[in-house]
Amino acid sequence: MQLIDQLAQGHSTLLIAPTGAGKTLAGFLPSLVELEARGKRKAGQAGNRGIHTLYISPLKALAVDIARNLEAPVTEMDLPVRLETRTGDTPSHKRQRQKLNPPDILLTTPEQIALLLSDPASEKLFASLQTVILDELHATVTSKRGDLLALGLARLRQHSPNLRTIGLSATVAEPDDLRAYLVGQPDPDVRSLSHLVEVSGGAQPEISILDSEERLPWSGHSSRYAIGDIYQLIKAHKVSLLFVNTRSQVEMVFQELWRINEDTLPIALHHGSLDVGQRRKVEAAMASGNLRAVVATSSLDMGIDWGDIDLVVNIGAPKGASRLAQRIGRANHRMDEPSKAVLIPSNRFEVLECQAALSASKRGEQDTPPLRKGALDVLAQHLLGLACANPLNLTDTFDEIRSTETYRHLDWETFEKVLDFVATGGYALKSYEQYAKLRKGKDGLWRISHPKVAQQYRLNVGTIVEAPKLKVRLVRSKADGRRAPVGRGGRILGEIEEYFIDQMTPGDTFLFGGEVLRFEAIRENEAYVSRAKSENPMIPAYMGGKFPLSTYLAEGVRSMLATPSTWKQLPVQVRDWLEIQRDKSVLPAKDGLLVETFPRANKHYMVCYPFEGRLAHQTLGMLLTKRLERLGARPMGFVANDYALSVWGLGDLSLLFSSGRIPLDELFEQDILGDDLDAWLADSSLMKRTFRNCAVIAGLIERRHPGQEKSGRQVTVSSDLIYDVLRAHEPDHILLKATWNDAAEGLLDISRLGELLTRIRGRITHTALPHVSPLAVPILLEIGKEPIYGEAMDSLLEEAAEELVLEAME
Amino acid sequence: MSALTSHLRKYTAAPVCHDIQINGQLVGLHDSGVLWWPDEATLIVADLHLEKGSSFARRGIMLPPYDTGSTLEKLAGVMDAFDPARVICLGDSFHDADGSDRLPAPYRAMLTTLQLGREWIWVTGNHDPVAPVRLCGETVDEIKIGPLSFRHEPIEKIGSELTAGEVCGHLHPAARVRRFGRSIRRACFITDGSRLVLPAFGALTGGLNVTHEAYSMIFRRRQYSVFLLGNDRLFPFTASRLVGD
After folding, report:
1. Model pLDDT for residues A634-667, shown as the tens digit of each residue
2. Is residue A136 a contact partner of residue A58, using CB atoms and an 8 Å limit?
3. With left for phi above 0 and alpha for psi between -120 and 50, is residue B203 left, alpha or beta?
4. Which positions in chain A touch B70 (Cβ < 8 Å)?
5. Who among B65, B205, B230 is closest to A794 (CB)?
6. B19-243 sits in which CATH class?
7. So what's the ipTM on this one?
8. Which CATH superfamily is A2-198 part of?
C-alpha cells in the first residue's frame, strides 16, 4: 500500500517483489483509480483523448496475459476503461484504429513503442500519458531492448513531462541502477533516482542438491545419470516444473523421462521454438492442474502464472544465483509457504557450482549484471525513428538522449558520428551526400529526405536479430511406399534453425517437440517432416541459451575449492575427487591461477583453471595459442568450458614453463589484450557475427522478412564482406566501434578477462605432472565435443589439401 | 591525390599461376581470381561489380564506398604482373546499368589508364546488359576465340558441344572445406576440364556455394574440381571433399 501512496503523489517508483506477490496488478491500481475519476468518454470525443497508461513487457505473451487478467476486474467493477494490446501480431487495421481512437490503457512491447514514436501523430497520442508501467524490468535492461526502451522513455517524457514511471522487478543486485533507469537524468554529475518499494521474499526457499546413488559424470551436460531420480521426484510431488538450460536439453530430458514413464504420468515440454498454439495448450493444461510435470527452458523464467507448482527441479548448473532464485520463485505462488527446489548437477564441477548457488540463496545474495552502457547501433536506429516523426533539433535531441541513465555518458562527438552514419553511412569518404537519408534544412533542423526512409525504418525496427529459421510442418511420409508427392497439408509444429536442417538429408530423423520426426523436404521456408520411429534421432543444436557462469558463483566455486573444511557438504564422490587432486597435484588458490602441464599421447597439455566462464576462456585460449605459437611452443589447439581451459601442442610445455624459457607471468601479461587480440579479431567469426547484428540494428543491412527471396545466409555473407572492407579502409568507423563494444561485453567477455589477468598477476602457480590430474579430466573429455580452435586458416587448408595428395599417391 | 583514391593501398601480385587445361587449352588460374591465357596473352576477369556500393546507397543502404577503388587497385596490381595484350571482362563489370555513368572521375581515370595500349572486351552481364558509357573497349554478348568461348552466364547443359571450352562467371562460386570441426569458406574456380567458372573479382561480391543446385545444371554431380583462393596460392579440392553452408 506504500506503493499506492507513492504513486498517487505522482512519484516514479521501482517495485521489487518476488514472483507471485501480485505486483503487476498493483502497478495498475493508481491508473484504474484515476481513470475511474475521469469518468466515461462523451460521445463524439473519441479521438480527443490520448493514452493514459502504457504497460510495456519484454514478452508478447505476457502483455496478452496481463490484459486478460486486468479485463476481469475492469468488467466486474464496470470501470470506464478501455484496454487493448498491441504487439507484432496485432492486425494492421486495429493498429491504425488505435492511433485514431486510442485506448485508455495500452499493453505492448518495446518495439511497438519505438514504432509508435516514429509516427508524426505520436505527440498527440502521448500528450496526456500519465503512467508507464515497465514489467520484468530486471530482464529488459540487460539487453539492447533495454537501450531502445530507455530512449523511448526519454521521448515519452518530452511528450508528457509529468510522466510517472513504475518499474516492476525481481530482486536484483543493484536496485539503484533500475531506479536511475526509470527517471530522467537532468544533471550529468548526479544520479537521480526513483522511489523504491521493496516487498520481502516471504519464506526462505527449501533448496537441496540431488545426492544420487549413481556415478556422477566427469563432464557433459546431459544429466542422463539422474533421470531415475528425477522421475521419482515427479512421482512424489503434485506438479513439478523442470528447468534446463537449452532447448536441446528439453528434448533430451523429455525423451528420457518418457522412456521410463511406466505410470504414464502426464509430462509435457515447452520451449521457445515450439508453435505458439502448442505452447499455449501446455500452459493452459499446467494452470488447470492437468499435468504432473513440464520440462522447459528459460522462456518461462518470466511472469506468466502457472498454477500450483510444488517443486522446481533445476537440471544442470544454475550459472547465476539470481537466475536460480527467479526459477525457484515459480513454485508455490503463495507468500507464506516456502518454495521447494532440487538442483541436479550434471557433472562434478557443477556440483560445486550448485553448492555455491545454494549458499548464495541462503544469504539472499544476488548477481544480476550491472546496467549496460547504451549501444550505438540502437542509438542509430532511434535517431532515424525520431527524424521520421519530427524534424530534429540536434542539441535538444542530444540533451534528451543524455537524460537517460543508459546514454548519460554519450559525448557530442560520438553523437555526431552516429548521426552522420544514419544520414550517409558515416564514411570518411564523403561520396554518398547525394543519397543522404537525413538532410539539414535551412532552419537548421534535420529531416528525412524521402518518405521511403520512414518505410525502411519501420521494416527494420527492433533489436532482436535472429538466426534464420524454417517452419516445421507435419506431412505424411513418403517412406511408407506411397508414391504421392509430399502433400501440402499438415500443421506447423514450430520453428527450427535453418543451419540444422541444412545438415540433414531427407530420411534423417531428429527430435522436436518431444516427437521423433523424419525430415522429408524443404519447400520455400518450410521444412516438411513426418512422424517416424528411430532409436537414434539427432537432437537439434540451437544457438544461444548457454549462459556463462556468473562472476559471483565463480568466486564461490574457487573459494570452496581452496577451503577443504567446506567439503563435508559435498557428495562423497566429489570429495574423493578433490582429495585425490590435492594429493596428486595442487588445489587452485582462491585468487590465483593454477597451471598444470603434462604429456599425453605424444602431445603436451597445459590446463589452467580461471573459472571465468566459457566466453572469457575462449578468448583467452585464442590469445594464448597465438602467443605460444610466437614463442615457439607449437600449440595445436585448445578447448574451453566454464571452469577451465586446455591448450595442447608439440612443444614440451612442462619444460618451457619450469625452465623459465616461457615465463608464465609474461604469458598471462595484460598486454595480451593489445596487439594479439587485434590481430585475431581481424578474422574472427565471432566478431563478424557481432558485426552483422550491429549492422542490422543500425540499419546498414536490411532485415529479412518472410516472403523475401534473399535468404539469411546471403545476408551473412555480405555482412562479412562489409566487415572486411571496413576494417581495411576505415578501421575507426562508428559501426566497428559499436561491434567492439558489444564483443567486449558479450561474446568475447573481454572486460571479465581483463579482471582475471589483473587478479592473477604474481599469483600463478605451475605444477609439472607426469600425467593428467583429476581436475583436468573433465576439460580433456570435452575435446571433440566442444569446438576446437587452432591455427591460422590457410595452414588448415594446406593440411587438408596435402591429405588429398597423400590419398591420391597411395 | 584525390580523396577518392587516397585510401587505396597498392596491391602486388606475382605472375605465378596454377596451370590447367580447359578444352585442350593451357590456361593459368591465379590466386587473385583472374584467369591468364598465355598463348593469347589474354587476362580474363569476372564479375567486377563496380559501383555496387553507390548502387545500394541510391536505395538508402549505405554500404562502404570503398569497393570500386579497391577492386580497381587490385586489378591494376594483377595487370602490372601479367601485362596482358587483351583483357576480357566476363560481364557484371558494373553492378547496374547506370554504374559506368556514375563512375567517379578518379576511378574513370584509373580504368582508362589500365585500358591504354590493350584490346579490351566488355562481355555484357545480367547486371550490365548495355555497353558502358565514356569508356573504351568493345562490347559483346559473347565471344569465341580459338577453342574457348567467353560469356557471362553458363549455358545450362552438360556435355554438349556448345559448352565445351566455355569460360564464364555469373555464379560467384565459393566452396567450404571442413576439418577438425572447423570450416573454411573461400571463393573458388570450378571446372570439369571442359568448362570453367571464374570466382567474382569485385570487392563487395559474395559467393554461392558450389553444392547449390544451380551448379547441378552445368556440372555432373561430384565430377568437378575447385581451386580455393588463398594467400599467394590456390588450394585444389575434388567435389567429394566439399560441404554445403
Report:
1. 888 888 888 999 998 888 999 999 999 999 999 9
2. yes
3. alpha
4. 725, 728-729
5. B230
6. alpha beta
7. 0.87
8. P-loop containing nucleotide triphosphate hydrolases (3.40.50.300)
